[in-house]
């Protein structure tokens, strides 16, 4: 059962860098729902995209799976597909342990393998759907192209990548307004100014965002010719990339 996120509700003598540890795992569903506008919309849409784009006899990957929300959504989308399996990967032992419990709690004929590993070490093979749901932003920028190239090479023709991220914007006026709207969203979810400030400090140099244009450029370098922003809410959104 998810607990309420109050990790940053009291003044901390030192704000450490954000980590996906047991403390975060316990509150993660509440944290991400109250921090990422449009998160539930993206998760629900992953099932719809999977239903249309998943191919029989293929693998599906959830890279940076956290507690498996995208995994479970893909699973729902595979209802009429044959001989598919999902491979979910996260480098946090606390996340993986709880994710396995969540996956086991929802019965399905679709097999799911949950691995604890660095997603950059996982070879993508025979894939029809790959999900990076707010994951790439936690990799150092120099590792991002290599990962996307690995994904492209492992996708079947017609396979898709769902890439959800927090964005920055080149136009400073638009950028500031979208940041302010995101902060208003967090306030509307009950976060205090102290919580917002301390969480932001914890993510400094941990979460490094790109512009939409930077994402497009990198995806094209990886081999993807068809890239579209299919969803955006304030400074969060999701790109759909299709392999020829």
From TrEMBL:
Known catalytic reactions: prephenate + S-adenosyl-L-methionine = carboxy-S-adenosyl-L-methionine + 3-phenylpyruvate + H2O
Pfam entry (one): Methyltransf_25
Ligand binding (S-adenosyl-L-methionine): 39, 64-66, 90-91, 118-119, 133, 200
Gene3D superfamilies cross-referenced by the UniProt entry: Vaccinia Virus protein VP39
Span of domain Methyltransferase: 62-159
UniProt keywords, alphabetically: S-adenosyl-L-methionine, Transferase
EC id: 2.1.3.-
Presence of the UniProt keyword Isomerase in the record: no
Keyword Zinc: no
CDD domains reported for this sequence: AdoMet_MTases
Enzyme class: transferase
Lineage top rank: taxon: Bacteria
InterPro entries membership: CmoA, Methyltransf_25, SAM-dependent_MTases_sf
GO molecular function, one term: transferase activity
Record-linked HAMAP family: Cx_SAM_synthase (MF_01589)
Family stated for the protein in its record: Belongs to the class I-like SAM-binding methyltransferase superfamily. Cx-SAM synthase family.
Task performed by this protein: Catalyzes the conversion of S-adenosyl-L-methionine (SAM) to carboxy-S-adenosyl-L-methionine (Cx-SAM).
Subunit structure: Homodimer.
Record-given protein name: Carboxy-S-adenosyl-L-methionine synthase
Gene name of the encoded protein: cmoA
């Amino acid at each position: 059962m998810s607990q309420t996120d109050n990790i940053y509700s009291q003044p901390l003598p030192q704000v450490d860098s954000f980590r996906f540890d047991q403390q975060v795992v316990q509150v993660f569903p509440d944290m991400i729902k109250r921090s990422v506008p449009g998160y539930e919309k993206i998760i629900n849409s992953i099932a719809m995209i999977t239903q249309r784009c998943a191919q029989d006899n293929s693998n599906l990957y959830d890279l940076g799976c956290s507690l498996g929300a995208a995994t479970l959504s893909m699973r729902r989308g595979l209802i009429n597909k044959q001989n598919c399996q999902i491979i979910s990967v996260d480098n946090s032992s606390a996340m993986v342990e709880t994710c396995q419990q969540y996956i086991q709690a929802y019965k399905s004929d679709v097999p799911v393998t949950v691995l604890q590993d660095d997603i950059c070490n996982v070879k993508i093979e025979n894939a029809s759907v790959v999900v990076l749901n707010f994951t790439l932003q936690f990799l150092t920028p120099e590792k991002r192209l290599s990962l996307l190239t690995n994904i492209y090479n492992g996708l079947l023709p017609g396979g898709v990548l769902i890439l959800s991220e927090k964005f920055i914007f080149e136009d400073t006026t638009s950028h500031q307004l979208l940041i302010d709207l995101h902060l208003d969203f967090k306030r509307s979810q009950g976060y205090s100014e102290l919580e917002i400030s301390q969480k932001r400090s914890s993510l400094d140099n941990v979460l490094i965002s790109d512009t939409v244009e930077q994402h497009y450029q990198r995806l094209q370098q990886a081999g993807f010719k068809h890239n579209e922003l299919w969803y955006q809410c304030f400074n969060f959104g999701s790109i759909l990339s299709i392999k020829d």
